[in-house]
Design goal:
The chain is of the alpha+beta class. The protein folds into three domains: about 10-195 and about 245-275, no CATH class; about 200-245, no CATH class; about 320-380. Helix content is about 50%, strand content about 10%. It is built from 14 helices and 13 strands. About 20% of the residues are buried. The structure holds zinc ion. The site of zinc ion has 8 residues, from loops.
Length: about 375
């Protein structure tokens, strides 16, 4: 078993699956990562160190980092706990042992032998407060967060800069990496190895191999029938063998964010957008998405709020909408005043339906406001 310093960060990327595996310490309460907790400092239950590989969606830690308000202690505490290895070596040994207990910093643990222990959250709070109040540390962290926010905005053109409009996300990344010295430096602070090997994702398969190696003289891995039978055996996980993909190692947390940003930019099916309503960063499958799905109020999401207000704005700016509303009100009134005359009702329903279709055609650019204007004149 190779010995690796646990404080290095490891990201392993599966071929086309956008999963990342982090080899750094996260402290979990139940199963939720502290980075995504709303008010971690007030959590009463014990915190548990989790030093497993953490299989999460590519970019989740980066997005969470961008969204933290690091000028507030609560958010800083989340950051501190999640990326504790950024700080651990500076904490005096006595207290470091209180946090890490029996964890050997230079041993790589596997699932079966993983030691579990509970962290004294008061010790964590004490040290995170010290770092939080250290102006130099704090300024640097805020500067780096701003650097990554600016970089994301540049790559995804979140500020709608005209001169960047016609470039692709990776062309913008390429420009950024050339013109920004700090970003360029992170692009060099990692090691990468890529073995053309396979990894097994099925415990039973692995156990079968082990059992056959110990019990039989023949090597099961050179037995075609054994391999076929094991791979065909039904199980809910699906594929049992994967290509390993590249594994990146770095000692620098910001180089880690760089590696993740690079891969999201190049994957071509995800974009980091900034919500036009709440300002939070989020991942979207569409490059043109404007709003996130967070709650804007208890009743309404940013997306619902954004669409509603932009619709209102458009209507206010467009005189044809005013004309449409006037005719609409007039027809509705005629129906109300003449409940006995069927013509008003059928005419109103038919007109309403056609007008709605017209509006949706304008939204999808199939028709224009001028055509709508003409139609309103003819149909009223
Ligand atoms: Zn939002």
């Amino acid at each position: 078993m190779p010995l690796t310093a646990l404080s290095s960060i490891e990201v392993s990327l599966y071929n086309t699956r956008a999963n990342e595996i982090n080899r750094f310490l996260t402290i979990n309460t139940a199963n939720s990562n502290l980075l995504f907790c709303k008010n971690a400092t007030s959590i009463k239950s014990d915190l548990l160190i989790n030093y497993n590989y953490n299989n999460i969606h590519l970019g989740e830690y980066l997005i969470a980092f961008l969204n933290l308000d690091l000028t507030k202690f609560n958010d800083f505490f989340n950051y501190f706990c999640t990326f504790i290895f950024e700080y651990i070596e500076d904490i005096p040994e006595k207290d470091r042992n209180k946090i890490l207990s029996n964890l050997n910093l230079h041993t790589k643990y596997f699932d079966i032998e993983e030691p579990k222990h509970i962290v004294d959250s008061e010790v964590l709070k004490k040290y995170s407060k010290q770092y939080f109040e250290n102006k130099e540390e704090q300024d640097y962290l805020l500067k780096m967060q701003q650097l990554f926010r600016d970089s994301v905005d540049y790559i995804y053109n979140n500020n709608k800069d005209k001169k960047l409009e016609k470039l692709s996300t990776y062309e913008r990344f390429y420009i950024l990496q050339n013109i920004n010295k700090e970003i360029r430096e992170f692009s060099k602070k990692y090691m990468c190895h890529y073995d053309l090997e396979f990894s097994l994702h099925d415990k039973n398969f692995m156990l079968n191999i082990l059992e056959n190696i110990t019990n039989k003289s023949k090597n099961p891995l050179s037995d075609e029938d054994f391999l076929i039978n094991n791979l065909l055996e039904r199980n809910q996980i699906g594929n049992k063998v994967y290509g390993v993909g590249p594994i990146f190692k770095t000692l620098d947390i910001y180089a880690y964010f760089y590696i993740v940003l690079y891969h999201i930019t190049l994957n071509k099916y995800e974009y980091i957008k900034k919500c036009n309503v709440c300002g939070h960063y989020f991942l979207s499958k569409k490059e043109t998405t404007l709003y996130c799905n967070n709650k804007y109020t208890d009743k309404i999401t940013c997306k619902e709020y954004g669409i509603k207000t932009s619709q209102k704005r458009k209507e206010n700016e467009e005189p044809v909408y005013g004309k449409y509303r006037q005719i609409y009100a007039k027809k509705a009134m005629a129906v109300k005043r003449n409940p006995d005359i069927e013509y008003y009702k059928t005419n109103y329903e038919k007109w309403k339906k056609e007008a709605k279709e017209f509006i949706s055609d304008i939204k999808s650019s199939k028709k224009t406001y001028d055509e709508f204007d003409e139609w309103l004149d003819i149909s009223k």
